[in-house]
Amino acid sequence: MHSGQIARWASVWGAVLLTGACGQATGPAGVGVTLRSNAHSTAPLTGPSPEYAAARAAGAAAPTPTPSGGRQAEVQRPQGDDPVKVPPPKLSKYTYTFPVKGCEVTYSRKLLVLPKTTIWAPQGCAFVAPVAGVVDEVNTKNRWRPSTDTGATREGRFVTIIGDDGVRYLGGHLDTVADGIKPGVRVKAGRLLGRVGRSGNARDTATNLYFAISWKTGPTFWWVRRGMVEPWDYLDAWRTGNRTISPREETLKLRGKVGETPRCTVLCASKKPEKTPQAARSEPPPSRGDTGDDDGDGVVSVTP
What we know:
Number of strands: 13
Structural class: alpha+beta
Low-confidence stretches: 25-43, 286-299
Number of helices: 6
Oligomer: single chain
Shape: elongated
Helix content: 10-25%
Strand content: 15-25%
Mean pLDDT: 81
């Protein structure tokens, strides 16, 4: 009888303990959390607040701090080294130089009549080889006359070279041709070829260098010699330090298109001489070193 009563009391207390265990919440890692029984409870929480838990459950982002409106500290840039000067890319195996040396110059950068340019420079400035090569033609006598205006003599005194790049370069309207410059002479880039002047049909203008790019032909095809390829882009490059930009590709491409000896199409005709006393009086006296006789194309020496 006594033992049965004890068993009944043990069952009651077991049920009470089990109910209390089920009503207690657990926090992270099984840590117990005491829940508020009502809104006025002041018992401390040992886990996250219901508001925080609700925000996390809804996927809301954590609040981002807002910068104050006060003055921000100025950022001091670190002082770096001087910029490194990188040379322009090498575009060809040839090295070029601007054809007028030691003088301030200006020149045209557009096509006026012929694909050449006039480099305006003071009297006596150096005309130099723009690239290494061999002297091709030399004219030391100014045979141009306004009464005839023959095409072969319009550039007055001039020198042409055939560069190692296969391109012909002409410098005309020279005052003088440098000593030792004759057909067949090998020259380096920058070698003195002559001095800037105003021979030929430049006699009534300021001193200048007639500069032209073409390809090798015989002396009778003087219209090829006076310029076939526009030179100013190359002059700009050589003057500003891009010394390996070459006209070779453009020149050879044009020669392949029009042929080595194309017809003259611009400023081809010469004047018929006027046989009057007045015309004779208007002719200028022979220039320094000239003989006064005009033998046409015979003024040019050409390499064999």
